[in-house]
Amino acid sequence: MKRIEVWADMVCAWAYIGKRRLEKAGFGEDVEIVWRPFQIDPMAPATAEPLEEALRDPVAEGALRACNPDLTPAENRARVSRVAAGEGLGPRWGAAWRSNTFDAHRVVALALERGGVALQDAVVERIMRAHFAEAADIGDRATLVALATEAGLEGMAEALDAGEGTAEVRSQLLRGKAVGVATSPTFVVGGTAVAGAQPPEVLEDLLRRAVPERELPDEVRLLRQAESLLEVRDPLGALQTLEPLLAGHGDDPAVRLLAARAYFGSAQLNRAKETLESLLERSPGDHYARFLLGRTLERANRHAEALPHLRLAAAMSPEPGYTDALHRVESQVP
């Protein structure tokens, strides 16, 4: 069975429009649609505020402007209203609240876990309709519980209070970032993605041409995800991804080196130093670990200690980055 993953935020109007277009696409019964979390406004307050009032806040306006950089939020809302009407969404249309959607994503994730894709779709539909057509605050837990119950998902009050779904949503947010999801909605099939509320024929073409993603062992998948997060400069996300590997495979050099890179990137210099020193005890000829240890010591303003490591790294591998760091540190040491 083929799977379409829809990375979307529950407060993204284009995601709701994209849902309607997805429903019009001519997919067969061997296609399942799974909703994944994305937050366009992760800094939204835990207690919702009226949207009109929130739009006076430059942070909120910036988050909404990201939906369409070429239009002001007001112009974008007017355009979205016209498109939504054309997709049969209404008659009333328009959100009333700036809501934090983390709990909503937890409910959506739990719907998939407890009832599969059909129940998840029903929950997504109910939450989006409440936000856009009923002016409901979907950041309010009591409202979310009621909406989930209407869609057929019971027990959300206890689940939310117990923290269920939190780890899954955080993990999926990191996974989305690692695979390059940067907007809502983004439709992903295997290793192929298309962003935006695309017409049905575009989504049908995506399903036809997408190359199935190769199944990988969990350890390899997590390593690659951590590497991708480092590439997009999210070292803390990389460390979160590495947590199960450090717990179960903490002696693996590849895991420890990635952790050292993440420690370095997040300015946890003592941890980076300790990890790199332990790696070099076992593999003194690892020129990259040697270089990173020198950079760690340089960043800690311990230039005299950094110098021999950078000299060794440059001698083992004459890469420009190695020699640049060496010359920089040499100029700091009498």
UniProtKB/TrEMBL annotation:
CDD domains: DsbA_FrnE. Keywords: Isomerase. Transmembrane segments: none annotated. Signal peptide: none annotated. Residues 4-207 form the DSBA-like thioredoxin domain. InterPro entries: DSBA-like_thioredoxin_dom, Thioredoxin-like_sf, TPR-like_helical_dom_sf. Gene3D superfamilies: Glutaredoxin (3.40.30.10), Tetratricopeptide repeat domain (1.25.40.10). One of its GO terms (molecular function) is isomerase activity. This is DsbA family dithiol-disulfide isomerase.
